[in-house]
Amino acid sequence: MREFIRHPADIPIEFRQINTPHEQRETLSNISQGGLAFHTKEALVVGTQIMIRIPLRQPAYEARARVAWCQALDGKFEVGVELLDPGDGFRSRMVEQICHIEHYKQEVLRTEGRQLSGQEAAMEWIGKFASTFSQDDTPDHTPTTDPEYRAH
Questions:
Q1: pLDDT tens for residues 21-55?
Q2: What's the start-to-end Cα distance of the chain, in Å?
Q3: Which SS3 state, helix, strand or coil, does residue 77 take?
Q4: Is residue 14 helix, strand or coil?
Q5: For residue 80, what is the DSSP state?
Q6: What DSSP letter does each residue of 20-51 carry, written as one string?
Q7: pTM, to two decimals
Q8: Going from the N-terminus, what domains does the chain have, and what CATH number goes with each?
Q9: What whole-number distance in Å separates Cα of residue 111 and Cα of residue 92?
Q10: CA 138, CA 34: separation in Å to the nearest integer?
Q11: How far is Cα 3 from Cα 36, in angstroms, rounded to an integer?
Q12: What interhelical angle do 88-112 and 118-129 show, nearest 10?
């Protein structure tokens, strides 16, 4: 069973601590129904509430989250957060699917030399992989509750 997905290093995520204007831009490690993980230059304190934004498509995905864990990794930090709004689980599944489609689009360009539009990539990806991306696919754990997880 798929527990989370891995992403190319260029999928951006923006975050800021609640009640602060300073926003940081980093890269997403993985995303699941209950949370996500990303890399950052600075450690974040467990329990800190943050706002996250993934501007992959418009409108951008935005959610409130809480830092569940933070671990040093290769001179940076990997941070796992849990989504605080119960309705964000469904929205995160949509973002997860968009990330899969973007990754597919990049992979097709790299391996086949075909440059697909977003619509073309979505249609091909849905035809090939949507059946393995079912709504009943519930992870055993998420990156937010499993600090031993490492994205590779």
A1: 889 999 888 777 678 889 999 999 999 999 998 88
A2: 18
A3: strand
A4: strand
A5: E
A6: ----EEEEEEEE-SSEEEEEESS---TT-EEE
A7: 0.63
A8: 1-147 (2.40.10.220)
A9: 28
A10: 10
A11: 11
A12: 100
